[in-house]
Amino acid sequence: MKKSLLATLVAGSILGWAAVASADQEPLVPAPEGKFIGNVTFATQYWFRGLKQTNDGTGAIQGGIEYDHPSGLYLGAWGSNSQVTQSPIDTKTATASVEMDFSAGYRNAFAFDDKATYDVGLNYVYYPGTQKATYNFDWLDFIGKVGYDLDFAQPSVKLIYSPDMQYESGSAFYVSGDIPIPVGKYFTVSLHGGHQWVDDNRRFGLPDYSDYGIGIGTNIAGLDLMLQYVGTDLKKSSCALTAGGGSCDGFVFSVGKTF
């Protein structure tokens, strides 16, 4: 999310943002008029691609803002509190207490079918105060996403390429699929599955792995409520190296407001 929005992000996201990875609130097509869309969320845990980014019992406060242009172009920023530590082979001690993301891209419907949509963009993940670590915490993602509105469900597939993943662990790919399914008038069930590949697993601190999630959400009095169960196929010994430590699966509850 670009620098013109940095001041806004610091005000809203320095409180901490812990967007649960599967809680994707992107519109299917551009807004009819350019506008800002903001959100604030509290989550019992911050999970990213199936991995804990905050310690147990910490919780996470999340905030973000996005500008959608009628052409389909968008700029955005969000931030989160975190307890992400350095690469396991780093010789210096560092912990990231805040994560800040800056993104830009273009989304629209395909000309042949307005129910088929695409989204191409980039996202820069930045951890203030970690620049003294031996291996860089920050990284850049190039993102491509396609989706289709089936009326009874809205499946989508996303491919993310990182030229140099976190801790300078080399090129990385993440592919995922998500299916939100409306159930009745008030609830939505969300299904998620993904797989992470990293070139230098030793420096990254984890082997390649798959992650999954299932959740149910609703809206009450203008608040978005979601309960999810998320996890990975990592062994417990590998999970002990992640930010939250201990395990790579569990429940997370979030309450959010979009404005």
Structural description of this entry:
The chain has helices spanning 6-13, 201-204, 236-239, and strands at 35-43, 47-48, 51-52, 60-68, 73-85, 95-110, 113-126, 139-148, 156-162, 172-183, 187-198, 209-220, 223-232, 249-258. A 12-stranded antiparallel barrel has the order 1-4-5-6-7-8-9-10-11-12-13-14. By secondary structure, it is mostly beta strands. The relative contact order is 0.17. It is globular, with a radius of gyration of 18 Å. It has a single domain (3-258), classed as Porin (Beta Barrel), CATH 2.40.160.
Fold blueprint:
Elements: H1 6-13, E1 35-43, E2 47-48, E3 51-52, E4 60-68, E5 73-85, E6 95-110, E7 113-126, E8 139-148, E9 156-162, E10 172-183, E11 187-198, H2 201-204, E12 209-220, E13 223-232, H3 236-239, E14 249-258
Antiparallel strand pairs: 1-4, 1-14, 2-3, 4-5, 5-6, 6-7, 7-8, 8-9, 9-10, 10-11, 11-12, 12-13, 13-14
